[in-house]
Write a structure and sequence with these properties.
homodimer; alpha/beta; Rossmann fold; 2 domains; 6-stranded parallel beta sheet; 3-stranded parallel beta sheet; 10 helices
């Protein structure tokens, strides 16, 4: 089959331009520039990179951004005070607390302390619950990015069988929830498989759409996919690679060489879902700035 | 196959005794008797019956109950004021607003106005979201009742393929959410089928557990079920029946005579899931009274 590559990098670049154009329009009309704040605790390498990318993308789009740093020994109380301050700061439209947090701080407690109307990460239970019910809400970045890829590539979903591999709170569960809604993209028969599933390969072979979010490099093999399937790879595992200067490369959850020839559409790693994640956070920030989801 | 009947009536009666024993213990220790309040708007026959049953069951268990009535022309503001009053009444541990509400009132607005810590119906987005995330919460009555039946009958779920027919916010979606959690009952591969599904019968034939919540009388036929399946019937449609004094009988979503012989376990209608629903609300009321899910 002649597969079509789902180019997340190009799509994200396109959306970035659209967002920048919206900011220009807001500016021209004298409106308030959307403002994203990010709290970063400690100096974890991954978290530093993610937050730096978010701040840089804000700048490129024209959003206002604030980076608030704490050392790794910050107390939960101090962090909660900062969350409360951002909740009450009318200039901050949305904010995130970069995860993971140090062990002595309850991530759940911090997440639930965030005003759900500023929860652009979409992790607050109110946003999770509203998504499940089918109400307007902030959808977390990775699922929102995947939905946007499906929409922009015009992939049919109604009545299709979508198999989601993985049941994490940030990818598997929300993907399942979104794709079963009465909506486009949506209206799928949805199956969620995970580490305990005994019929995973069997389910994959029946799937029209497979979303792989297990974090197991090259897990999905050619013989697990039917002809014409749409495959979306959410995996991003660093595997050692002596031929790279960095010493590693990013591996997806899909054995691309085997799977791609059977697909109608497939997203690569890197350059597929990854670039859509930050851009979805940016889109949520714009929605927060416009009070498009929750009125004041 | 020699199927085993899942007797919801007997199980509910058993749980009712357990709850009554807990109330006795609370009384003996001088604790606060759990108090459920119910708001009933208008005089819809079904709603009157449901609320009357809830109040009666409270009395039988030994809970305190309050019935608050409004005429069908009550304004949304009046209703919201009452919700606020109940939120702030320390004697009321949990309360429900019987649905449906008259068209001029936004059900969602009322539901979201309820303090989630008193939301024993489990309809508030915070409770829905926490359930999805896997955090302690009030689970709505029908899914909670089904989970309890599975638990009390010791039905294996880990690694099993559970097919949920229906994607309603009060049954299908929460059932899917609960059965995919890392828990018992749970750890299932879960498939959600609905009106738009094109592979529904095919999915059912592969299922170890089928939960039918479509509201279509006798929808699930014998040839849609594999040998040894567990079938749980959530349907309760009133169908005309001239041989009954009432003029109708309750029909489930399962063609029982055809399906039952193939099952390992099957729940009948009536006497299956139905009796578990009120009892699950009662269990939530006890949990609310004990502040077992949310501390003050």
């Amino acid at each position: 089959m002649d597969y079509k590559l789902i180019d997340g990098k190009a799509t994200a670049a396109q959306i970035k331009q659209e967002l920048a154009a919206e900011v220009e329009k807001i500016k021209a009309e004298g409106g308030k520039i959307p403002h994203l704040a990010a709290i970063l605790v400690g100096h974890d390498g991954g978290s530093e990179t993610y937050v730096a990318n978010k701040v840089r993308t804000c700048e490129e789009i024209g959003f206002k951004s604030s980076l608030i740093r704490f050392e790794a020994d910050v107390t939960e109380e101090e962090l909660l005070r900062k969350v409360d301050e951002l909740n009450n700061n009318p200039d901050v439209d949305g904010f995130i607390v970069q995860l993971p947090l140090p062990k002595h701080i309850s991530e759940q407690k911090i997440i639930e302390a965030i005003d759900y109307r500023k929860d652009v990460d979409g992790f607050h239970p109110i946003n999770v619950g509203r998504m499940s019910i089918g109400l307007p809400c902030f959808v977390s970045a990775t699922p929102a990015g995947i939905i946007e890829l499906i929409r922009r590539y015009g992939i049919e979903t109604q009545g299709k069988h979508c198999v989601v591999l993985g049941r994490s709170n940030i990818v598997g569960k929300p993907m399942a929830s979104l794709l079963m809604q009465k909506a486009y993209p949506g209206d799928c028969t949805v199956t969620v498989c995970h580490s305990r599933s005994t019929n995973l390969a069997e389910m994959c072979r029946q799937a029209d759409i497979i979303i792989v979010a297990l974090g197991v490099p090259e897990f999905l093999k050619g013989d697990m996919v039917k002809e014409g399937a749409v495959v979306i790879d959410v995996g991003t595992t660093r595997v050692p690679d002596a031929t790279r200067k960095s010493g590693f490369r990013l591996s997806g959850d899909v054995k691309f060489d085997e799977v791609a020839p059977k697909c109608s559409y497939i997203s690569p790693v890197p350059g597929g879902v990854g670039p859509m994640t930050i851009i979805s956070l940016m889109r949520n920030t714009l929605l927060a700035g416009k009070k498009a989801i929750y009125a004041e």
